[in-house]
Amino acid sequence: MSEDEQQSAMWRPSADLAVLRLRAELLAKIRHFFQDRQVLEVDTPALSHAGNPDIYIESFCTQYEGPEGLQQLYLQTSPEFAMKRLLASGSGSIYQICKAFRNEESSRLHNPEFTMIEWYRPEFDHHQLMLEVEDLIKYLGLFAADQTIQTISYQDLFQRFASLDPHSATLAECQACVIEHDIHLSDTGTDETSTYNKDMLLAVILTHVIEPELKQFPFVFVYDYPASQASLAKIRQGQPPVAERFELYGKGIELANGFNELTDNIEQHRRFTQDLKTRKNRLQKKIDIDHNLIDALSEGLPACAGVALGFDRLLMLASGKTILKEAVTFSFDRA
Amino acid sequence: MASYSTSEFKGGLKIMLDNDPYVIVENDIVKPGKGQAFNRVKVRNLKTGRTIDRTFKSGESVEAADVMETSMQYLYTDGDFWYFMDPDTFEQIGAGEAAVADSIKWLKEQDMCEVTLWDGVPLTISVPNFVELTVTETDPGLKGDTSGGGGKPATFETGVVVRVPLFIQIGERLKIDTRTGEYVSRVKET
Q1: In this structure, are residues A268 and A241 in contact, taking their beta carbons and an 8 Å threshold?
Q2: Which of A109, A110, A186, A249 best probes binding to B when mutated, by most B CB atoms within 10 angstroms?
Q3: Which residues, listed in sequence order, are joined to residue B183 by a DSSP beta bridge?
Q4: Angstrom distance (rounded) from CA A59 to CA A101
């Protein structure tokens, strides 16, 4: 196809109609799955006065022209904060199918606008929620009903595929592991002068060394992350302390991230403040933090586990595609 | 000094790494669920042609390489340098042997070439995919044999030797594919 022809075909969907039919079918099944389990479907605002201060996530910002002047608004990066406010107000188990927006690069596996399935289960911990994610995957016919999806702790994962204990390893040992795997970083500092801290090096090893190995698993859960990568998960004290977090991978592609949710409003506020400070140091955009969420947590978030699943990626795997845009009706470049 | 952020990375972008100019061949974004994202790129060294992998933290900046490609006319060589002229400004520059490299055997005076300049100095010379050269030496073929089967070596004005059909004679102008080094056709004199 010539460049001109390619350009003029841009009005067409980036996904085949067969994939779009499967998309509708899977969404209908997902709604059935939750209805059977009495999980309430909810619909929260995509546009909010508060943003997500996570230093690795950038929001789309816009402005509302109201009678009091311009108001800063954010497109949600996930429905998490609004859903936690519902949980704190006594909603019980809830789920949502919504669009989330992240101002990041679009790539083979990323679209700045994507469909997320997010749900929360009071009384569940992250292991129980992993079982429910597994049930959903089987319900959608993506994994044999009589088999079990493998689970592996973050620690075992690193020991098995990179011969490194991620909890006890020193910065120097992480640097040696990166070099041993023939990975060339933009910063070759091999001591404390490197701009790569330990969590970044673990992320390098995870994405460059381990994720390719995970391609051999149709699905696999990874759980119990380093406490320094807790995000909004509860930290379980112990030797070492770990964040009660899990990820679901399908053929080496990250599909879902779940937490045993942090319910401590003081700790939540501390982590937000820490993120804002880091954003300032890194010259990132200033974000208005969600005081409604902090207030909801101080009122009392029930002990619960929550998970966000990237639906477009799941559809991509279900339809045998390898590029995300082939699972999205109109990918970002055609939007 | 101009620089690029990783968000501007794409194939063809020219950047400086370890004091050498490189061109991005492939750019892959990898991101763990929660945490630092990386740009994993394949880059080709524009001086040596060697391709290497490099990982950047997303959000990092890297110095731009002042590399440009321009069409220039080959003039002559003094043995040390090969001289090219900008057809618009008539400005002349000399390229060393490393820059001219394998293109030497195809360089014919007056021909247009693509010259890659780094900080104004020629880095590589690319000859056109097809050049027209005149045969200076070849065994006389059998008259009337137009089958072309087998072929024979022929030497051209630049010194290059190419296999040509048996019917080709000294003094003929031929079209040669520089990518494969193969004979394509006779050139019809107009």
Answers
A1: no
A2: A186
A3: B176
A4: 7
Note the pLDDT tens digit of each residue in A298-330. Answer: 999 999 999 999 999 999 999 999 999 999 999
Does the CA dihedral A107-A113-A115-A121 come out positive or negative? positive
Q: Which domains occur in chain A, in start order? A: 10-149+218-334 (3.30.930.10), 150-213 (no CATH)
Confirm or reject contact between B31 and chain A (CB < 8 A): yes
Give the number of other Cβ atoms within 10 Å of residue A233's Cβ. 25
CB A252 within 8 A of CB A214: yes
Smallest CA–CA distance, residue B51 to chain A, in Å, is: 13
What is the 3 state secondary structure string of chain B? CCEEEHHHCCCCCEEEECCEEEEEEEEEEECCCCCCCEEEEEEEECCCCCEEEEEEECCCEEEECCEEEEEEEEEEECCCCEEEECCCCCCEEEECHHHHHHHHHHCCCCCEEEEEEECCEEEEEECCCEEEEEEEEECCCCCCCCCCCCCEEEEECCCCEEEECCCCCCCCEEEEECCCCEEEEECCCC
pLDDT digits (tens, 9 = 90+) for A8-47: 689 999 999 999 999 999 999 999 999 999 999 999 999 9
Cα nearest neighbour of B55 on chain A: A185
* DSSP conformation class of A333: G
A100 to chain B: which residues are within 8 Å by CB? none
Scan for tokens 């460059």, then name that residue: A208
HSE at residue A29, side-chain half, CA atoms within 13 A, is 16
Contacts of A206 in chain B (CB under 8 A): 32
Query: What whole-number distance in Å separates Cα of residue A34 and Cα of residue A133?
Result: 11
Q: Which two tokens stand for residue B139?
A: 């065994």
B125 Cα distance to chain centroid: 5
Q: How far apart are CA B24 and CA B45, in angstroms?
A: 9
C-alpha–C-alpha distance, residues A294 and A264, integer Å: 9
ipTM attached to this prediction = 0.84
In the structure encoding, which two tokens stand for residue A189, read together?
A: 């500092």
Instruction: Name the pTM for this structure.
Output: 0.82
How far apart CA A67 and CA A127 sit, in angstroms, is 49
Peptide bond into A240 cis (omega under 30): yes
- Sequence-distant (6+) residues with CB within 8 A of B107 are B74, B77, B82, B100, B113, B125, B127, B158
10 Å CB burial of residue A167 (0-12, 13-18, 19+) is middle
